[in-house]
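Batch job 17 of 40 flagged for manual review because the log was empty.
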Amino acid sequence: MAKILVVDDDPDFVAFTRDVLKRQNHEVITAASGKQALDVMHKDKPDLVLLDIMMSYLLDGLHVSEEMHKDPELSKIPVIIVTSIIGRPEAGIAEGRLSVDDWLSKPVQPKVLLEKVNLHLQPPAAPQPSSK
């Protein structure tokens, strides 16, 4: 299946997420900080990133997503942010203020996690030829 990078400083969340994804035959790699995540991505490019917002410093995950967005090698990798922050970031995503593709609220339900992962691992639909 796919190679998924799980970036979170909570080892329990990482273990839970790894188990859910491995049951679907995904390869899971992990990082516990933003810096480590960027290093891992440059060495072992994932197909998708699950990225916690708050890690070693308040908005560590958002910094990672911004750095990915600027890097031509990483900018096409789908990013799903994972957050326990109250509120819904979809407005920031829709307005382009957040360099991410989707979001999940903690605690994450396995079914919802897999739905989001599968959605963003799908190749974009090919444009349909116009009939004139």
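Reviewer: the log was empty due to a logging misconfiguration, but the result itself is present. Strands lie at 3-7, 27-31, 48-52, 79-83, 102-105. Unflagging and moving on to job 18.
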